[in-house]
Amino acid sequence: MQITTHISTIIILILTLTISTAQSNTELDTDTTVISYKCTDRALEEVLSDVQEIVEVKFQYNPSDLKDINTSINVEGKDLKTFLEQLLTDTTLDYKIKSDQVIIYKSKKGLGSTNEIQKHTISGYVLDTETTESLIGATVFAKESSKGTVTNEYGFFSITLPEGVHTIEASYLGYNSNTQTYDLTENKSVELQLSSGAVIEEVVITAESSVKPVHQRTQMSQFTLPVEKLKSIPVILGEEDLMKSMQLLPGVKSGSEGTSGIFVRGGSEDQNLILLDGVPVYNPSHVLGLFSVFNADAIKSVTLTKGGHPARYGGRLSSVVDIRMKEGNLEDWHGAGSIGLISSKLSVSGPIVKDKVSILLSARRTYADLIINAFYPQEGNQDVKPALFFHDYNGKIQYKINDKHRIYLSGYAGRDKFGASFSDSTSVQKSLINWGNKISALRWNYEISSKLFANTTVTYSDYEISTENSEENFIDTTLIASLYNSGITDLGAKIDFDYVPSTNHYIKFGASMVKHQYNPGINQNIQREGDADGGNNRKVAGIEAVETDVYIEDDIKFGKFNANIGVHGSAFSVENTTYTSLQPRLGLRYLAADNMSIKASYSTMTQFINLLTSEALSLPSDVWVPSTNRIAPQESWQAALGIGGAEGQFEWEIEGYYKSLNNVLSYEEGTSLIDNDPDNWEDQITQGTGESYGMEVFLQKTKGKLTGWIGYTLSWSNRQFDDINNGEAFPFRYDRRHDISTVLSYAISDRIKLSANWIYNTGNAVTLPQYQYGATIPGPGENTNVIIVEDGGEKNSFRMSPTHRLDWSISFTKKKKKYERTWIISFYNTYYRKNPFYLDLEPVPVFSETPDEFGENFLGVTNVVREKSLIPIIPSFSYNIKF
């Protein structure tokens, strides 16, 4: 009885709750929430639990703040504020009210300091636990407030939340999520580390997508390709290639069969801004387009934007390919290597000073030239030596000064040689093309505050190409040679800011300046007979230009609407002429349902750089030239409307677009920079207009043993020039009515993976000449060369046959004690489809059925069009190792 009395004395609970809730679902009405409650010496946490169970009020707090605090209270019919003030009297606790939540926290001043909701910012980086690489586009989500953000291009995030306890979850595709609880009483800087672990029980991928579901993103017409996904797509000769992977996306068309160029929504190849660590790459191709210059082992992320371009991008009309290199491991040394059919590669990464300085080195080289030389058939006494060679190198140094300052130095260098030499005892003939890129960037990341992030970069980019066609006679010591050189060099600096004032605004702004040095070409003809030298040089004068850009954009959230509003300003100074351009950008998203949204975008773009090119293969006469006082900048505007959604393991998008182009360039018919007077190269250029429009459908399966996508594009693309095709509009060469791509990957087990892709494209539009005639052009010395000129015919009125093929690969992975090895077997063009690469006009004699009076039945010669195919079925294998 005494025990019972004692317990009753310590804990007397008389609970009467009278509740009147006239509040909305989203906002707590403190005046109409009436509470009656009595207790004596009861634990504060239990009191809050009692009230929360019956009243529609959510309490958020750190349990350690309430530890060992008991309270006694007796209130009858009091509003919520009065109840809380009496409850927390004589404690060090205070409260804030936010929406339908009451946040209780420890305060230095105690109750009564202020009842206004204070906010603090949690910021930092999301990193890979094993490699310490920052993760771009990782999702950071605060569960209690249902607020979220994503990391920027450098893995940085910032999110402002009400004061109190918050559960923060970070997630990324292919990684286990990381959940942490923080008592947010002041601004906090953190590092959230994620461990790889996407494939568990029965090889079912269960990790949430690193990128928000497609219907939740403001940005439309954009794809992010995880680098690991590239390794599962079968490509030519077993070498994974991100540019070829992009050709499998809707709205992106390839050039000729096997090449790595991309043509986006009716645009030309030069209308794609390709960035490596923020530095432009002017020629992304190795071996005339069979490979791209990007080594997947050195790449961290790839993002393609086809439309609705954010204001931070400028300088091109069609697309942005933003490629970011890995940064290097700050904790341990790791590496990867591969031996393939025609090339091998090796990459290593590790700390120079642990947790402070890291380095990444990657190299790749082909040995196709050695293999071809060993097996190439020789003709008689002639020694034939084909040249097919490329190598490239990537490097990056990271210096983590402290939590707020990081410095990076990255670089790329690559070189190609293609052609052949033919020699015997009397002479040697050479036909060679050499080209290469050199790129570097010095970057400083500075977290100025928890809401403001700055990135300052100094950039350098150099591209050059040279050709040699020569014949040297050993007997009479004569030499006839034609040499050509062209290139472009950039030196620039830029500064970019990310400012996150609240969870409803994400502001980016910045400025840049680049000095361009254009070398349109030097065409040198050499003739030597004995001791006498002759020949001539024809050089296009170099051109300098300065390009300046400024931008500002804001990603705004308001209810079910998201908007990205921005403007990009450009100025281009060349030859005492300055062009200016103001380019508005707008992206809208309306969340029509929990799993579906409607999107729209509008963007204007201006381009000051031009690639003068034939519509056939990339040739040495393809040169980069700027806008001048006679060549106006290219301009475009594009509007798009789309709908997208997610359901279970599937995401889908449907988009329609229209793009108008102005001042697009082309050679006048029958001209090129090499074969005509180079001093008046602008006279050989004509400018016109273009338009493209179409519809794109994309269905993707993101989880499970079977993943992949199906893409379909229906499109039209036309060009019009007053000086071409009699001023009539004509189809662009890569105007293809239908494009279909299917990409599938199936995890047979945790060790074996099968991948395949199938494509179908409408044939290219080409011009068939109606007649031929001879023409002469100047040669070395007093000589002249006679060429056959094909002319006539409506521009691009003939369609080549459709292209389709099946590629597949299978990989076998096994984890050893100290390393992981993978065998990959792949087949390109499995059923040996003879896809057309080019057209050849073959002369065919024509005979009459009956002879004439002289007994002759020969009527003449006609040309028959033959489609030529170059790439047969190609099996390949590679051996990969990670350690």
Keywords:
883 residues, mainly beta, Phage tail protein beta-alpha-beta fold, Ferric Hydroxamate Uptake Protein, Chain A, domain 1, 4 domains, five-stranded mixed sheet, elongated
Short description:
With 883 residues, the protein is mostly beta strands. It contains 7 helices and 56 strands.
> What name goes with the CATH superfamily of the largest domain?
TonB-dependent receptor, beta-barrel domain
Q: Sheet bearing the most strands, described?
A: 22 strands, antiparallel, barrel
Rg measurement, Å: 33 Å
How many separate structural domains? 4
> What percentage of residues falls in helices of 4 or more residues?
under 10%
Instruction: Tell me the β content.
Output: over 45%
| Alpha-carbon distance between the two ends | 72 Å
Assign an overall shape.
Answer: elongated
Number of discrete helical segments: 7
| Overall mean confidence score, pLDDT | 81
